[in-house]
Write a structure and sequence with these properties.
2 domains; Beta-Lactamase; 13 helices; 6-stranded antiparallel β-sheet; alpha+beta
């Protein structure tokens, strides 16, 4: 499949999914009974100021290079969020990030930032498909079983999506696992808008669709969301029930990499320091050969 065909097909699928979700009331139309959910193609085309034939070709993946004006009109008509609008433009090839090499090299600026963090702050660097490329010792303790001890290579299960959907301990650790699962897939789907042709991403998605019905159902919804700050409730085997905050920062010197920093309230931070046994939170870097990218 050509690069254009792959993007166009996914663009059409995204439009269909959002059209089927939109209610007449949200679109400013009379809320009359309907046989099927969502709006008809004719209604979307009229509201967006497009011909029915052209909009139909867009959904079928046969309309090349929609203009910015067309995409803005569709985003407005479909009531897309800012994240979804960016995703739509990425699928149309208007905001494609730089190509990534087959083997990811961890961001040096992210490594320097991790080195500046005050223990027991935990941090990981995630690659384009969610592989953990670097981490500190606090992160190893925060996510028991996910990341290895210093000097060891992380396994495939350290990948963010694999961990959430295939490691039983993740369902125990995350008190709000369904919400975490939703966010994980929505972030991966957002990255997919820029990486439609990336074989590593395609392989990861195919693997998880085949092994996790929970992932497959969420992936089919085509939710797009980039949550960059928030909190997580954990049932930690050593710390007990805790709530941690997190911040996600895009890394500028390496495309498609993110630095995720986890902070603790004072009482939890004190207990984390005890677990660290006064040893420094050294940064660990994954061997490139051990990642799926």
């Amino acid at each position: 499949m050509s690069r254009f065909a792959g993007r166009s097909r996914e663009l059409g699928a995204f439009l269909r999914e959002r059209r089927n979700r939109l209610t007449p009331a949200e679109a400013g139309l009379p809320d009359t009974p309907r046989r099927t959910p969502g709006l008809r193609r004719e209604e979307i085309a009229e509201l967006a100021g497009l011909s029915v034939g052209y909009y139909t070709r867009l959904e079928q993946g046969h309309a090349p290079h929609p203009s910015t004006a067309v995409l803005d009109a569709l985003a407005r008509t479909l009531v897309l969020t800012a994240d979804e609008s960016r995703h739509l433009k990425a699928l149309a090839g208007q905001s494609v990030a730089p190509a990534v090499p087959p083997t990811e090299q961890v961001s040096q600026s992210a490594l320097r930032l991790i080195g500046l963090l005050v223990p027991p702050t935990a941090a990981v660097v995630l690659g384009r498909t969610g592989d953990v490329l670097a981490w500190n010792r606090a992160a190893t303790l925060l996510f028991p079983g996910r990341l290895p001890q210093p000097g060891e290579r992380p396994g495939p299960g350290s990948n963010n999506a694999r961990y959430v959907f295939t490691d039983p301990s993740a369902r125990t650790l995350f008190a709000d696992w369904p919400e975490v699962a939703d966010d994980t897939v929505a972030h991966l789907r957002s990255a997919a808008g820029h990486l439609v042709d990336d074989p590593a991403l395609r392989a990861l998605v195919d693997e998880l669709i085949g092994t996790s019905p929970d992932f497959a159902a969420r992936w089919a919804r085509r939710d797009v969301r980039e949550r960059v700050t928030g909190g997580k409730r954990l049932r930690h085997p050593q710390l007990g029930p805790i709530t941690i905050g997190y911040e996600v920062v895009a890394v500028l010197d390496q495309p498609h990499q993110w630095l995720v920093v986890y902070a603790f309230p004072p009482t939890v931070a004190s207990r984390m320091r005890q677990l660290l046994n006064s040893s420094p939170a050294d940064v660990e870097t994954a061997d490139p050969a051990s990642t799926s990218g």
